[in-house]
Amino acid sequence: MKAGFVNIFGKPNAGKSTLLNALMGEKLAIVSPKVQTTRHRIKAILTEKDYQIIFSDTPGIIQPQYKLHEKMMQSVKNALEDADVAILLVDVNDNWEENDTLFSGLKLKVPAIVAINKVDKADAAKVQEAINFFEQKDYAKKVIAISAWKGVAYETFFKPILEFLPEGAPFYDDSESISDLPEKFFVSELIREKIYELTQDEIPYHTTVLIREFKEKLTLTKIVADIIVQRESQKMILIGEKGKMIKQIGTLARADIEAFLDRKVFLELFVKVRPKWRDNDMQLKEYGYGI
Ligand code: GDP
Ligand code: K
Ligand code: MG
């Protein structure tokens, strides 16, 4: 049996969350075209007959500008330290030199596999050129080309990873559980994802979601959540004219939450203003961002 931790690193929008979902065949990590969507480190446990891999998605690597950012980068640092194998994910159409600088800067102590992503959006010659570029780098034990959108195959993806994983007993017994985080967390993330989808400018970055009630009833699950924003004007936009926006967020989120929980859901959303929550240690803790 092989068992170990495989952590996915990369610049914002490289496709880390999409890859994690493809690997698990389940939507665990929220995805959006906006940078800094992922704020937490999500561990996903994949248990097969001959191996157990604990994948972890991380926030993109950035320069912190406020305390929430610092918490996000702490989770990247933690992920650097407990990996057996690192996946360094690159968007094939991004600047390769820039990615190389960033990967070298990680000072990785574990074997790294460079995965060139989004090959569905580049021609074969360019993909080959990217492979050649990264194959020359010291940190790259192996370079592979993937499309997280299309999914990954055992031969190209899992086989090279397993080569670098240690032999050992599985870390998690219960082959049923696919994450170390509670359902409540994923529910709040699905609501947050809709805010990234439906609102613009600073709003998604000034927003977080707090689940206040999560109750299993006879025929459905009742969920009450607060959408926290920094300003009154943001609250107005999130509620929308005649409550149109909040209703749309609720409808889209409920559909995804029902698919995730495999249960009928009654979802109630409120919008609350908490000025400067992103820089307040106590509030960050309350909203689930690290210690
Ligand atoms: P993250 O910031 O690294 O977690 O990236 P996301 O998973 O949120 O993806 C960023 C954007 O890239 C989203 O719009 C995805 O739909 C898109 N994306 C991810 N993987 C692929 C891929 O294989 N091909 C293409 N064309 N787009 C992708
Ligand atoms: K993103
Ligand atoms: Mg992400």
UniProtKB/TrEMBL annotation:
Protein name: GTPase Era
Annotated spans, G2: 36-40
Membrane topology: Peripheral membrane protein
Encoding gene per record: era
Gene3D superfamilies noted in UniProt: 3.30.300.20, P-loop containing nucleotide triphosphate hydrolases (3.40.50.300)
Keyword set, alphabetical order: Cell membrane, Cytoplasm, GTP-binding, Membrane, Nucleotide-binding, Ribosome biogenesis, RNA-binding, rRNA-binding
Stretches the record annotates as G1: 10-17
Main location: cytoplasm
Organism the protein comes from: Niabella digestorum
Family, per entry: Belongs to the TRAFAC class TrmE-Era-EngA-EngB-Septin-like GTPase superfamily. Era GTPase family.
Coiled coil: none
Region named G5: 146-148
